[in-house]
Amino acid sequence: xxxxxxGGDGTPAVAAGVILQDGCLLLVRRRVPEGALTWQFxxxxxxxxxxxxxxxxxxxxxxxxxxxxxxxxxxxxxxxATGVRIHYFACAIRSGxxxxxxxxxxxxxxxIPLRDVLHYIPDGLFPPVQHxxxxxxAPRERPVAxxxxxxxxxxxxxxxxxxxxxxxxxxxxxxxxxRVTK
Length: 182
Known about the structure:
By secondary structure, this protein is of the alpha+beta class. The protein contains 3 helices and 7 strands, in the order E-E-E-E-H-E-E-E-H-H. It is globular and about 40 Å long.
């Protein structure tokens, strides 16, 4: 059973983790898409007698294996595509390595370079999440708003998922969704 939203309107509450690391945002691809949503933040329903902050910590661990701490609640809204009340939290990784920890729910877990996020979430990000990313990430790493010229975010190497990209810094070549390609 889900906990009613803080407004008491009975809308199920969901908590979503916004996790940024090394210029990449953690997204999951659900095994069963929710409407047009294919890629999304690690998230899940708030259980009865559970706070949204506690729920996001639990859900991130269940879906990705990461232990996180809530740094800030970014805001909440009723999602326009799903009608679900979502609480968005900026989270910091405390331990673990992101992986598909719930294969019955999650098809894929990926670190998406910020410049590519809007290819995965084409309708754009919730403005408070966009603002958080804009103020937290380095300017060249931040997502490009739909009305901004793409040149501000840098070129896409090899298209959406890209060919192997070598940054020239001696690190392992990675494809455009941050996986090691060697």
